[in-house]
Amino acid sequence: MRTIKYLTLSLLLGFLTIQTSCNSKKDSNSANKPAGIKQLVPVKTMTVKQELITRYIDFTVSLIPFEEVHLAPSSPGRIEKINVEIGNNVQKGQVVATMDRTNMEQAKINLMKLETDFRRLDTLKKTKSIADQQYDQVKSSYDLAKNTYNFLQENTQLKAPFGGVVSGKYFEDGEIYSGSPIAAIGKPAILSIIQINQLKALVNITSNYYPFVKEGMKAEVSCELYPYMNFNGEIYKIYPTIDNSTKTFTIEVKILNNNLKLRPGMFSKIMLNLGKGNAILVPNIAIIKQTGTNNMYIFVNKNNIAVKKLVKTGRMFDDKIEIMEGLANGDEIIVVGQNKLENQTPIDIKK
Asked: Could you give the CA distance from residue 73 to residue 97 in angstroms, rounded to a whole number?
């Protein structure tokens, strides 16, 4: 029995000696390995090149009237008659409301008297039977009376400046118009008129597309309420400045609405065909979104080092996406293994 105990103890001591020797070799190897060398991360890459594409961009917008006016006289007064109701169609130049005529009628009487005097003196002037000073005084009075009458006439008879639809009525016959703003629109008005046989949309576009957008460019407009219909649009105004905070610029798109199916306030989709051009396309999988931000970046190979580059993206093309900024033609990007990388990580490029 004692012999067995001695044998077991000998075996245990031998095992501990071997284990200690192995650990010493491991420590020796670790000590001899240079510090600071990162392990190479295996990746696959591709070289980007420009491709010919047709650029489309689309936006969801709320339609607004092509023109809108809030009609009001230039001074307070009693409303004699309002000739229209909300929803009525009006023609350009149609009298839609009439203010109290008292001042206008008085101005008309005064104008007629001065016109008679002026014509009489005008005849005398031709025969040089009147002094120039007297003639000039009467002419000045006549011109002033004519301007006063025209002003009062314009502000007594309110006319539609364009054909459209009455969208707001804020007073009734006989009420006093005070000139105070109407709460609903923030402006003084008796009536509001909108033009809807044409509509428009304000579209904010990222500044990268500024070189491609031109006045007169056609737009395709669609609306969920009419899934099988398209409406014709056209860019008719491009704002000249870029918003520094949003890096966007604004365009106005005019939309034909002769069938009156579209209405202000409807949400619609506007698609612009910006034509053909060269662009850099990369696989979607190469794009990495930075956590907690909207920043997109791609890893680029620089002498077997992964360099993180911020990019701006454009439209999707199947399984590829357009790169608007951040890459150049010929850059070698990492398309496999990029999720394991950090900036300046050494890489091992696999075929």
From this structure: 10
List alpha helices for the chain, DSSP H.
2-32, 102-126, 132-156
Query: Phi, psi at residue 129, to the nearest 5°?
Result: -100, 10
Count up the domains in the chain and report the number: 3
Is the four-CA dihedral 142, 144, 149, 154 of positive or negative sign? positive
CATH number assigned to the domain comprising residue 132: 2.40.50.100
Interatomic CA distance for residues 255 and 259, integer angstroms: 12
If you write DSSP's letter for every residue of 73-123 in order, what string do you get?
A: -SS-EEEEEE---TT-EE-TT-EEEEE--HHHHHHHHHHHHHHHHHHHHHH
Spatial distance between the Cα atoms of 287 and 223, rounded to a whole number of angstroms: 32
Does 268 score more than 50 pLDDT? yes
Q: Which domain holds residue 177?
A: 68-191
| Final residue in a domain of this structure, among 159, 191, 223 | 191
Shared domain check, 246 and 182: no
pLDDT at 69 over 80: yes
pLDDT per position as a tens digit, 76-119: 889 999 999 999 999 999 999 998 887 777 878 888 888 888 88
